[in-house]
Design goal:
Nucleotidyltransferase, domain 5, 584 residues, DHBP synthase, 35% helix, alpha/beta, eight-stranded mixed sheet
Length: 584
């Protein structure tokens, strides 16, 4: 059985822009159905997945993922006609009447026909009879449950909104999801964090990670009373309660102006972001982050006690917040935890495919190892050589992927150079996990400033993550070694005695968002870090995504080479080629 999973609502953002001429760039993601992606499950096993943005360069696009679909089919060696079922990570049809009564553009934006018609226009046949809409939160839940390997677990989904929900708690047993608790979008933690992000001058539903990065520079005590009054946990019902003033969530497409006005009156008028750290904004971010973490910890604790479950599966954009994930992982009752690396809406494509494969496609293959996030395209020597030959202004050499290649890259890192590393299949999800990465020595000279300023062109307060050999983790960090550590989804405290070794990746709160590298998932990257350890004494590097501000994670050789040529990297290591830089 072959199941194609899709995410995205292809008309949603176009409708938003057309009906809101002159919309602020910061508000262009206040709509459903962004981050479109495709995933393919064959005989119960996930074989490929990719986000559409990686092919088009339009970051976060919700367009019909025609390029991603083409890729996953080619990767599996199947045609469109051979796909048995098409799973979509939204099911608005159940709410058609309610949406139509509100005057919402249902047929244009939310209807399943927008995807069915799009595929038909793209040349697909028999789409409607193969099409299976999946409830959005069910898709998120399956995206974490299916690859976790847990027979029994508490599954929590939290995001901005599904069709009408913003938070759902499930109990999973034997692969079946039992819904225990759900909340509407009026009490959405994702929307709360998004409005606060927009209040601080960052893009809604995009830049929340910047607020998380800013938070450790602030004092949470200053605005704690505001957030404690605004959002609380109801221990009688096991529910998050958010007490927005009446009308605060109106005019969402205009950037929630009423909610932002409420926050300004209760707190301050924020400055326009300029990349620096402003104390008001940092204190506000710290209070927001503290409240989110407290609420999630209370929620998970309540439902773990209520169900007796000790294993957790988490998905939805809220759980890309690695600081909150750390606090959840540290709960004493948790003895296993899996967070879907693509917890945003791109991951709902694979969750929808998993769900339909489980319920209609003969079941899922047994989980025999860790979830493999390297699901995207890969390129060979001929692809890279052709891209390099199109750039006669660059100096390069081919050495192959043998001992010399890994030794040279490790020597560059040891010598405090900043390199790009392009290898194998592209990662699925927002984190670069060593196949499309920028790497550097974590104790390098002003390494954070050098990468932020001359390479990534981003805010100076943004932290960097370390990739660390599994054998080195406990020596350098304090962590429970749960699965999220593999995927850069959890922060960990840096051991005081190890700080000098990793000074460039230690955040203001003495934490770091680690990626534990083991040979089973990333043998090449593990080999490189082993070479680094031989030269520096520590198998750890800075690991940040190979892209620049506003650019999706790089997918292909041509984009990698062009990007390398435009930024201050010392070398690019790409499938056995070493690119030195521009000719003299």
């Amino acid at each position: 059985m072959i199941v194609l999973g899709l995410s995205g609502l292809p008309n949603a953002q176009d409708h938003l822009r057309r009906t809101n001429p002159g919309i602020d760039k910061l508000d262009e993601r206040i709509c459903q159905g962004l981050d479109s992606a495709a995933a393919l499950v064959v005989d119960g096993r996930l074989v490929a997945a990719a986000s559409e943005e990686r092919f088009t360069g339009d970051k976060g696009t919700g367009a019909l993922p025609v390029h991603a679909i083409d890729y996953v089919l080619r990767e599996a060696g199947v045609t469109a006609d051979q796909v048995d079922l098409i799973a979509h990570g939204f099911d608005y049809e159940r709410h058609r009447r309610a949406f139509e009564l509100t005057g919402a553009p249902f047929d244009e934006v939310y209807a399943s026909a927008t995807v069915v018609d799009g595929l038909t226009t793209a040349g697909w046949e028999r789409v409607a009879e193969r099409f299976r809409p999946v409830r959005h939160h069910v898709a998120h839940a399956e995206s974490a449950l299916a690859p976790s390997g847990f027979d029994s677990a508490l599954v929590v989904v939290s995001d901005g909104m599904g069709e009408t929900e913003s938070l759902t708690v499930y109990r999973a047993q034997g692969g079946q999801l039992e819904s225990l608790h759900t909340q509407s979008i009026a009490t959405s933690l994702g929307i709360l964090y998004g409005i606060a992000t927009r209040f601080l001058g960052f893009q809604f539903n995009s830049d929340e990670y910047k607020v998380m990065g800013l938070a450790p520079y602030g004092d949470p005590e200053r605005f704690r009373p505001l957030f404690e009054k605004l959002a609380r946990f109801d221990a009688d019902r096991g529910a998050v309660v958010i007490d927005w003033p009446s009308g605060a969530l109106a005019e969402a497409e205009q950037g929630y102006p009423h909610a932002r006005a409420f926050l300004a009156e209760a707190a301050f008028t924020p400055a326009v972001p300029d990349g620096s750290i402003q104390q008001n904004e940092a204190d506000f971010a710290a209070s927001l982050q503290e409240r989110l973490t407290t609420l999630l910890v209370d929620l998970v604790s309540y439902w773990m006690e209520r169900t007796g479950e000790t294993k957790l599966c988490l998905a939805g954009g809220t759980f890309l917040n690695c600081k909150s994930n750390q606090s959840i992982a540290e709960l004493p009752g948790v003895d296993g935890m899996f967070v879907q690396p693509a917890s945003g809406d791109d991951g709902s494509a694979l969750g929808a495919a998993y769900h339909v494969a489980r319920t209609e496609g003969g079941g899922l293959a047994p989980v025999t190892g860790p979830f493999d996030p390297y699901l995207g395209p890969q390129y060979g020597e001929d692809d890279v050589r052709a891209a390099l030959e199109a750039r006669p202004d660059l100096t390069w050499r081919y050495v192959g992927q043998g001992d010399e290649y890994f030794a040279d890259a490790a020597a560059d890192i040891a010598a405090d150079k900043i390199i790009a590393w392009f290898s194998g299949r592209m990662e699925f999800g927002p984190r670069a996990l060593g196949n499309r990465s920028i790497l550097a020595r974590p104790d390098g000279e002003k390494i954070k400033d050098r990468i932020n300023g001359a390479v990534k062109f981003r805010e100076a307060f943004r932290p960097f993550a370390p990739a660390v050999l599994d054998a080195e983790v406990d020596r350098l960090f304090v962590t429970r070694n749960f699965e999220p550590d593999r995927y850069m989804l959890c922060t960990a405290k840096v051991r005081p005695e190890a700080r000098h070794t990793v000074d460039g990746i230690v955040h203001e709160d003495d934490s770091a968002r680690i990626q534990t590298v083991r040979p089973d998932l990333a043998p090449g990257f593990h080999r490189l870090l082993t070479e680094v350890r031989e030269r520096t004494g520590a198998g750890v590097t800075v690991n940040t995504s190979f892209n620049v501000k506003g650019q999706p994670l790089i997918m292909d050789p041509a984009t990698a080479i062009d990007t390398f040529a435009g930024i201050a990297l010392d070398r690019l290591y790409i499938e056995g080629f070493v690119v030195e830089g521009k000719t003299k």
